[in-house]
Amino acid sequence: MVDTARRKEITREQVRHLAWLARITISKTEEQKYAQEMSEILKYFKKLDEVNTEGVEPTYHVVEVVNVMREDEPQPKPSDELLKIAPVTKERFIKAPRIV
Amino acid sequence: MPGILEFSASELVEKIRAQEVSDEEYIGECYDRIRKVERRIHAFLTLTEDSALKKAREIDSRIRRNQEVGSLAGVAIAVKDNICTMGIRTTCASRMLDNFIPPYDATVIERLKAQDAIIVGKTNMDEFAMGSSTEHSRFGPTLNPYDLRRVPGGSSGGSATSVAALEATVALGSDTGGSVRCPASFCGVVGLKPTYGLVSRYGLIAYANSLEQISPIARDVADIALLMDCIAGGDSRDSTSVDSGPPRLRKSLVEDVADVRIGVPEELFGEGTDETVSKSVWNAIFKLEELGATHTETRLESLDYALASYYVIAMSEASSNLARYDGLRYGFRLKDEDHDWSTAFSQNRRAGFGPEVKRRIMLGTFALSAGYYDQYYLKAQKVRTIIKQALSKAFKSFDLLVGPTMPILPFRLKEKLLDPLEMYMCDVDTVVANLAGIPAISMPCSSNRGLPIGVQLMASAFREDLLIRAAHTLEQNLGELNLKLQV
Amino acid sequence: MESTDLRVKIGLEVHCQLTNLKSKLFCNCSADYRQSEPNTHICPVCMGLPGTLPVLNRKAVDDALLIALALNMQISDRTIFYRKNYFYPDMPKNFQISQYDKAGGIPIAKNGTITLDGGKVVRISRLQLEEDPGKLSYEGTIETSRSTLVDYNRAGVALAEIVTEPDMSSPREARVFLQKLRSILEHLGVSRGELEGSMRCDANISIAGRTRVEVKNISSFKEVERALNFEITRQRNLLRKGLRIGRETRHWDETRRITISLRVKEEEEDYRYFPEPDLVPVLITEQEVEKQKLSMPELPESHKQRLMAQYRISLQNAEVLTENKALAEFFEECAKSYERPDLLGNWLVGDLLSYLYEMNLELKDSKIKPEHMVRLLELIDDGTISGKIAKDILKEMLTTGRSPEDTIKERGMRRISDREYLQQLTEKIFDSNPEAVKDAIKDEKAIRFLVGQLMKETEGKADPQLANILVTDKLKVLRARTRQN
Q: Would the CB atoms of C49 and B329 count as touching at under 8 Å?
């Protein structure tokens, strides 16, 4: 019997979709578990609704630095060591799973 | 108790330079100590004994030949395992990076090496820095050296423990929402989160990039200043770093708080704050007053929303920062896959990440997703502005804001693992500084039942000098802390 | 059914590589990756290694400002970068650092226009900077390959994304727009459109006021027209049958020349745009914009006007010449030493261009030199060669780079059997040898002298049989005339 008094902040379907968006496979049991945990946490986050933020700009950068740029000067770097740490390669390509 | 290991970094550097102490011998003793206590506290994930000893021998040799050596000459430093060290395994305590060997050094590592510091090993942490107890490590928890049944705090638990337990003299951690101050408080050591942008993040494996800073951990304030003077300063590889030179904080190691106005926000002593913690912190405040400071109780209502704001932002950024772990270019990759890329990525990440990481990624994905972005991420960033403005205003009347680092004493292992929200609540006093980008230091001020208690001082942006001065003054005038290591 | 009846609306999202940049957008790897071995132009930053951070290329901003000015756009005084989050094997970080125009995003410029030849105005809604992903290749086709091969050389290269309003009303117009855009970018010197993959576009198309369909994976301008024509047909057929046009993304299959529906699963992608925390805002001052304005090269429109005024060539020719900056430059170089630029224009626009197209060659990659082009025209003018021969010689010069004289000599190794040409020569010889002609009319055996002259004139290369025939025929005609008299 569904406890209607405790409205879920997030449903199992939503969790499944989020898991897909984030590319993390989760089992049906985990879906349930995460839905529950995440609901609790999201309920706590709702606290933010209490704050009046009208006319307030978001803070994307907490330090006031601007215009950081570099000159257009190429610097050759050794690439072999980067290929070495790739788990699967073929010749000089990095091998990924098939597209379809 | 090995005496040499109790010296501070500043003292050691002098002795090594004066050839009173052989660096090789000192480093050797560090590893003896590590061998002795590691199986009980598990602070380290990787040890670098051979290269450390080699470097030590080289430093001794240079000194004998009257050559220049750096400001951290020969000092043993432990490095949190989310800071890239070239050629040394860097795992973030995750299966996902279990085999990752960075081909480059983080900027702070380059600077440490340039000053001849010696990396003795990489320390345990909560996986991808997500946690407040170091229990979310793929490789098992680190234990509090003052009580092995309890957590050392997190996420930089390994770093704080190694310093407290005398395995290393100083350490580096990272602080996103309290991840250095929390373990510093729980392990009775000093931890400073710098102003955002003061220390380069290049080479810090990102969890929440608008909030985090690499942070020094040491046993006294003087060593914190020494480390900061080495690692801080602008870096062209980090666009968010502030273009300034080293902060020269050693100049602030004076005992003087005569002009210091302390604000004590009520919100930092919120519901759930342990009475002994509250009492200890107030004693520290009174001590500072004795020494010439003044204090005023104040209210900063917006601080009640800091925790929610922090977590929404941190999780959102994390969901994006951790997207790169798909097993193609580095890291963990499942074998024998015969799936399309989307399924393969999903299986790989399922196997590579622990449950707390997955939870935060999904919550962060939710907070950024269409239809929820305004209500969660954008809202949290607006609340952040309000908090930042409130603090700016407060810093017009106060030089420091003081309160407890942690609302509670170090808790027992597993105590807060059942309910994620309970664990998140531990950060209630520390997240404020990350949200506003201001510097904050935690130092031990007292103990209760043999467990350390930390007091937290916050100052406005780039005023680490005030923090160092006040903390140093307090430190020099506190009595014995009655702490006894269990190892 | 006319495009206008269908109320076709086409919008384009064009990704142009800023090929003038030497390094990538956010790291200092060399951006000159074509012709290189896979995964040789990479570094920890563009490979998305943990702990690495992006740093913006100053010149990319400068180039973007030039584009914004050329497209008459409103330049933002403050611009920020956003993350576009999605997973794909060609994405080193599984998010792309880009820009956005909603949710507080501010692209580098907005609200501009491009005017096509003929007056049609296409509105440009925004210009943004973003990074290119890596390149995927397969063993076989995308559908049959058991794995995917990834090359990150291209990952991180700077792209300028130019998005239009759905102002184009036919596939042809879309192609014309792209050609104009390419010409502008070439004139600015920020992008070489002829480099493989340097200009890619996605198209949005709707007909009869219905749902908009997105078409991706269009690799060239030619393919744009084909893909959109296919879509119009497909959508029209759906409407005829009374079916709905689904709002979706379709993939253009170049080989099969159809669009196919890309969505494999029911899940809908959600890019979760948010501001890039690792990059700080870029403030663009008026001085900065002025500086770029002053350094602005000649744009196609003024270039066209100037060519018409300076060289008195037709509008049509001027349009074609300025469409391809290299061709226009070649024209002007030739025009320095040739007095009939109008003829020159015709030759370049007509013949030269069509030969290049035939041979799938870019002017820059051909071997022809301006002085040789001029020389060729001079040889036509003084009657040394016919127009027809000249065309052949021109074609050869494109691949050999030899002068017309050398080419003629070279070719002359083969028989000259151009009847018209030899006819001309025959006339010439008859005119200059009246005595010999008289003799030949009387005595058929004296023909040998005239044929000999013809052979001499062609340095022995004339087809002897043909030469004989021509001389004989001409003599016949003359003999007939003489008898009449």
A: yes
| pLDDT tens profile C380-436 | 888 778 888 888 899 889 988 889 888 887 766 445 667 778 888 888 888 888 888
Under a CB-based contact definition with an 8 Å cutoff, are residues A90 and C42 in contact?
A: no
- Residue C405 burial (C-beta neighbours within 10 Å; 0-12, 13-18, 19+): middle
Residue C283's DSSP bridge partners are C78
Residue B174's alpha-carbon distances to B190, B194, B209, B322, in angstroms, are 13, 10, 11, 17
More confident residue, C362 or A96: A96
Please give the single-letter amino acid code of residue B198: L
Of the candidates B316, B317, B326, the beta carbon closest to that of C94 is on B326
* Least Cα separation, residue A5 to chain B (angstroms): 21
C-alpha separations of A48 from B177, B309, B375, C50 in Å: 18, 7, 9, 32
C136–chain B Cβ distance below 8 A for any pair: no
Please give the average per-residue pLDDT across C353-357, as a whole number.
Answer: 89
The answer to whether C266 faces chain B, any CB pair under 8 Å, is no
Alpha-carbon span B387 to B306, nearest angstrom:
7
Average pLDDT over chain C reads 90
The confidence score (pLDDT) of residue B338 equals 85
By C-alpha distance, which of B116, B220, B117, B114 is closest to B163?
B220
Identify the chains in contact with C, defined as 3+ C-beta pairs within 8 A: A, B
Confidence (pLDDT) at C265: 53
Closest among C156, C158, C151, C222 to C191, alpha carbons compared: C158
Of B214, B225, B286, B274, the residue nearest B445 (C-alpha): B286
Longest dimension (CA), chain B: 71
Cα–Cα distances in angstroms (integers) from residue C58 to residues C23, C55, C123, C129, in the given order: 10, 9, 27, 12
What's the pLDDT tens digit per position in B430-482?
999 999 999 999 999 999 999 999 999 999 999 999 999 999 999 999 988 98
pTM of the model: 0.89
One-letter amino acid for residue C88 of the chain: Y
First to last CA, chain B: 10
ipTM of model over 0.90: yes
Cα separation, B80 vs B87, whole angstroms = 15
Structural element, H or E, at residue B290: helix B275-290
Q: Is the dihedral of CA B23, B29, B31, B34 positive or negative?
A: negative
Determine the 3-state secondary structure of A83 from DSSP: helix
Confidence (pLDDT) at C399: 87
Q: Is A77 on the interface with B (CB under 8 A)?
A: no
Under an 8 A CB cutoff, do C149 and A65 touch?
no
Q: How confident is the model at residue B41 (pLDDT cuts 50, 70, 90)?
A: very high
Q: Which residue has the tokens 């009208």?
A: A54
